[in-house]
Amino acid sequence: MGSSSSTSLVSLLLPCLFSLLLLRLSTHLNPDPTAAAPRFKRTPPLPLRFRHDGAFKILQVADMHFGNGAATRCRDVAPEVGGARCSDLNTTRFLRRVIKAERPDLIAFTGDNIFGGSASDAAESLLRAISPAIEYKVPWAAILGNHDQESTMTREELMVFMSLMDYSVSQVNPPGSLVHGFGNYHVSIRGPFGSEFVNTSLLNLYFLDSGDREVVNGVKTYGWIKESQLAWLRATSQQNLHAPAFAFFHIPIPEVRGLWYTGFKGQYQEGVACSTVNSGVLDTLTSMGDVKAVFLGHDHLNDFCGDLNGIWFCYGGGFGYHAYGRPHWPRRARVIHTELKKGQKSWVEVESIHTWKLLDDEKLTKIDEQVLWRRSSIRL
Ligand SMILES: *[C@@H]1O[C@H](CO)[C@@H](O)[C@H](O)[C@H]1NC(C)=O
Ligand SMILES: *[C@@H]1O[C@H](CO)[C@@H](O)[C@H](O)[C@H]1NC(C)=O
């Protein structure tokens, strides 16, 4: 009895097993042609341009501090929403929510995108951290903070990898010039299709590598922007003086400290953790004249904007849940909204630059809206 029932069981199962095998074989013999084709980077439509309504919106995401995903716990969140309930997936959810709410034209990831010490594989962690941008096909640009390289990839490898990721407009360095660090590049935003400025840059974005850590006279300090980077910046700005510009880098410059005394909008809740070296970034930006605002990361509890020599310095405010923060002080993101002026025939130059922040609370509360720049009606 035993033998006959087991024979019938095998005869019943055999066709199933065989078809399973065939299925596997057929996928081997007749592979999906798209799967076999080399995998090219998906690029957004380039060059980037203002929308038909004359606006261009940038979402700044500062300090995601991504680790391994679901296994990486949140820091500094209220106990009732923390513990096993909270992980890097909360950071991902926040990114999806802000993308859906604001529909940005570009996302600027301003460093400490991954927290090297908690990421067992840098590439895997970065792919997961950035994935919502790719999912929504939003062009994105990234620079490095001081923690990104603390996992399995060097700063150079990280920038190369990010430059090759889908929808990325990140670049490692300007071609043909020797510039310190990795992630110094220029992105121009052209006029909308159909406008007379379709081939002209109306807004310039300068991304700079502010380094990680350095030792100066035997004392540890943070990185800073070097003279070769400033020389490249001055030269690039010279070719683009007609249009306003923004700069993005991770570590603040020493002068940001002084805003405590001269005024700021937003919150200044921790010391500015900058380098002890002042390499003259503010002097360079002031002499260039095109940069209207600088967007920083690094100090998660600071989310203010303050004016230094007519240039706004704005923090993004901490975004990621594995980054240090403060319980009951929601994680946040900054939006930078630039609008063109309507000329007689079509859109012309930039007219105004606004910024605000979104909190990761139930309503994605919008706070601290302010004007950063407006073209004066008096032409000199
Ligand atoms: C993280 O997400 C979980 C699941 O959606 C939620 O229950 C928890 O409140 C979130 N934690 C925080 C700090 O937002
Ligand atoms: C923009 O450049 C394209 C290609 O070079 C050219 O055909 C077109 O006439 C230019 N348009 C304007 C408005 O300058």
Automatic annotation (TrEMBL):
<dbReference type="InterPro" id="IPR004843">
    <property type="entry name" value="Calcineurin-like_PHP"/>
</dbReference>
<dbReference type="InterPro" id="IPR011230">
    <property type="entry name" value="PAP14/16/28/29"/>
</dbReference>
<dbReference type="GO" id="GO:0016788">
    <property type="term" value="F:hydrolase activity, acting on ester bonds"/>
</dbReference>
<protein>
    <recommendedName>
        <fullName>Calcineurin-like phosphoesterase domain-containing protein</fullName>
    </recommendedName>
</protein>
<dbReference type="InterPro" id="IPR029052">
    <property type="entry name" value="Metallo-depent_PP-like"/>
</dbReference>
<keyword id="KW-0479">Metal-binding</keyword>
<dbReference type="GO" id="GO:0005737">
    <property type="term" value="C:cytoplasm"/>
</dbReference>
<keyword id="KW-0862">Zinc</keyword>
<feature type="signal peptide">
    <location>
        <begin position="1"/>
        <end position="28"/>
    </location>
</feature>
<keyword id="KW-0964">Secreted</keyword>
<comment type="similarity">
    <text>Belongs to the metallophosphoesterase superfamily. Purple acid phosphatase family.</text>
</comment>
<comment type="subunit">
    <text>Homodimer.</text>
</comment>
<dbReference type="GO" id="GO:0005576">
    <property type="term" value="C:extracellular region"/>
</dbReference>
<feature type="domain" description="Calcineurin-like phosphoesterase">
    <location>
        <begin position="56"/>
        <end position="300"/>
    </location>
</feature>
<dbReference type="GO" id="GO:0046872">
    <property type="term" value="F:metal ion binding"/>
</dbReference>
<keyword id="KW-0325">Glycoprotein</keyword>
<keyword id="KW-0408">Iron</keyword>
<keyword id="KW-0732">Signal</keyword>
<dbReference type="Pfam" id="PF00149">
    <property type="entry name" value="Metallophos"/>
</dbReference>
